[in-house]
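Whether sequence alone determines local backbone shape is best considered at the level of individual chains. When preparing material for the folding task, we compiled for one chain both its residues and its backbone structure tokens. No coordinates are needed to read the tokens, only the vocabulary itself. For completeness, the protein is quoted in full, as a sequence line and a line of structure tokens:
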Amino acid sequence: MTNQKLFITGGSGYVGRNLIRHFVSEGLEVVALARSEASAETVRQLGAAAVMGDLASPTLVADMAGCSALVHAAADTNHGFGTKVQADTNVEGTRRVLEAARRAGIARVVVISTESVLLDGKPLLNANESQPFPRRPAGEYTRSKGAAEKLALAMSAPGFAVMAVRPRMVWGRDDTTALPQLLGMARAGQLAWIDGGTYLSSSTHVANLCAGVALALEKGRGGEAYFITDGAPLPFRTLISDMLETQGVAVSDKSVPRALLRVMAGVGDFLASVTGGRIKMPLTLQAYATSAVEVTVDISKARRELGYAPVISREEGLAEMRAGRNA
């Protein structure tokens, strides 16, 4: 993709920042959408040009002028009680961005999706891209991201190829999303393992996600989704413990029964629903589905069609996190 101009939404976010680093290092000219001057400054420091606006900006078509590819990484990732704002951001925001891209003459698009599009609260075992979306999504994040992916892939057409990349549990350097929350819980003594935390989980280092996105832009088939992970899954407890230990935080052996949490999540969602969100419990079914049961996915399709293979090992990623803490 050298000598091309790439447009990125969500450029100042965790995934977006790493996408900018990746593509700038590959020699691409990158333009990123920024909602605030602080976000714009972050984008500029990473080597990209910033354009001010959001997913509803009337200037999107002009902002994308001269770009040949788009990575749509902006999303509302809230795992709490669903809101209209989240639905509008994830679904209508995706529609508006892709319509602008098509009008701007962009030829190839990758939408950052998620394994969460398949979650309903039950274990997800070695799922591949042919698995249907759930009849009862775990929450608004699952529902809205699933709807966004479906509409995006349906817009794919000759001359306008749209692909979705689905990571699971993105982690690694520069994490300003999950890691700070986990650190806060661990330091406050609030982190407990669900049934011991021995169930398996896939994961995706952010560098592997960036490599997968680049391959999808280059080789992906329009209208298709691709899972991208680190490879073989590991126990959820191992994944989380190792990340926390890179920050000098030890974890306890505290454990809570899964059945109790499932009831709490169900009650919490019911109360939030009947009160219009006025009553909120600490745990939602969306959060439960993401972290309390096995979630493993098969990356055979990405290996076969994109030539994908992880570019960074788990051990290298953990060492990078340790080095970042000590820097």
Observations:
- The chain has twelve helices and 15 strands.
